[in-house]
Amino acid sequence: MSHHIVRPKDLVQKTGLSRSTLRRMEIAGTLPPRVKLGAYCVGWHSTDVEAWLNSLPRVQQTGGPMMNFPSSSMGIDELPDDDCEHWEECV
Q: Per-residue confidence at 59, pLDDT binned at 50, 70, 90?
C-alpha cells in the first residue's frame, strides 16, 4: 500500500460522508487526526484512513428488510426514534 495524503475532497468521495459529518466525527475523536499541510490546507495519512475504515463495523446482510418499519396505520408522530440524529446523512 502506498503512503500518501488524503485531502478532504478525496475523503468525502472515499467515504460518501459530507464534509460537515467528517468534521463532527473529527471533533468527536472518531476520525484519524488530520495533518496540517499549510495555512489553509489539511489532509490525512492514507495509512491512518485505511486503518480507520477497516476498523469500522461491517453491516451484516440478512436477506430481509434492513429495518422493521412500523405498520402503515401509524402516523409520522408515532414513529420510533432511531439512533441517527441526522438520518438524511445516514442514508
A: confident
Could you give the angle at which helices 19-28 and 8-15 cross, rounded to 10 degrees?
100
Q: How many domains does the chain have?
A: 1
Q: In the predicted model, is pLDDT for residue 23 greater than 60?
A: yes
> How confident is the model over 67-80, as pLDDT tens digits?
554 554 544 455 44
Which residue range is the domain that position 24 belongs to?
1-56
Indicate which CATH number applies to the domain containing 46.
Answer: 1.10.10
Q: Indicate whether 41 belongs to any domain.
A: yes
Is residue 42 within 8 Å of 8, Cβ to Cβ? yes
What does 43-89 look like in DSSP terms, one character per residue?
EEEHHHHHHHHHHSPPPPP-SS-SS-PPPTTS-GGGSPP-S-TTHHH
